[in-house]
Design brief:
Length: 224
């Protein structure tokens, strides 16, 4: 594919969402983001201010998660989470879709749930919608992607990394086909090496979520 080390790093949301992550771990993640040039750090909401303070003066975004990892929070909770995250310094929010509503075919609920977060973030943060594709069939992936687009999201994202089977080339391809070229597609969940990243990009991903970003960038170095 011929991506440079810098191009690979700029695709990656450098991720640490483990519940046992400490403040020291988050600062180390942010330092790696500075060192390697990752697009963002993706962290739990309680650490947004810590990361924003550490990364102040850089171009690295702070991304956090909303309704994570189950997506079962109320619409109001998701909106409040979003507003607080932005107040603390988040520039991107990855919200988990309401999976029960998807499975029930209640697409109006799904649309309103996403739209609430989009409105809470409007003008202040980019919104990605996590579909948890490993738990959905092809029709559900397509419909969920279209609904996220209709609700004003900026990205659709494959997975939390906590449920289901993580990202797949097939899911990324379906998502890209559904949303067209204007929306972003983020592949996340189980992407640990350069070959996997390249496969996801070839399938239509424009962002990669990974906790193995450093290893992937170093692997890119080895190829050059």
């Amino acid at each position: 594919m011929g991506l440079t080390k810098e191009q690979v790093a700029a695709l990656i949301d450098h991720t640490l969402l483990k519940p046992t992550a400490t403040v020291t771990d988050i600062r180390a993640l942010c330092q790696e983001a500075k060192e390697y040039g990752f697009y963002s750090v993706c962290i739990n909401p309680c650490y947004v201010k810590t990361a924003a303070d550490y990364l102040r003066g850089t171009d690295i975004k702070v991304c956090t998660v909303i309704g994570f990892p189950l997506g079962a929070n109320t619409m109001e909770q998701k909106k409040r989470e979003t507003a607080e995250a932005i107040q603390n310094g988040a520039g991107e929010v990855d919200m988990v879709i309401n999976l029960g509503a998807v499975k029930a075919g209640d697409w109006e609920y799904v649309r309103q749930d996403i739209r609430g977060v989009v409105e809470a973030a409007r003008g202040n943060a980019l919104v990605k919608v996590i579909l948890e594709t490993g738990l959905l069939n092809s029709d559900e992936i397509t419909k969920a992607s279209l609904t996220a687009k209709e609700a004003g999201a900026h990205f659709v994202k494959t997975s939390t990394g906590f449920l289901g089977s993580g990202a797949s080339v097939e899911a990324v391809s379906l998502m890209r086909k559904a949303v067209g070229e204007k929306l972003g597609v983020k592949a996340s969940g189980g992407i640990r090496n350069l070959v996997q990243l390249q496969e996801m990009v070839a399938a239509g991903a424009t962002r990669i979520g990974s906790s193995s970003g450093v290893a992937i960038v170093l692997e890119t170095d080895d190829e050059q």
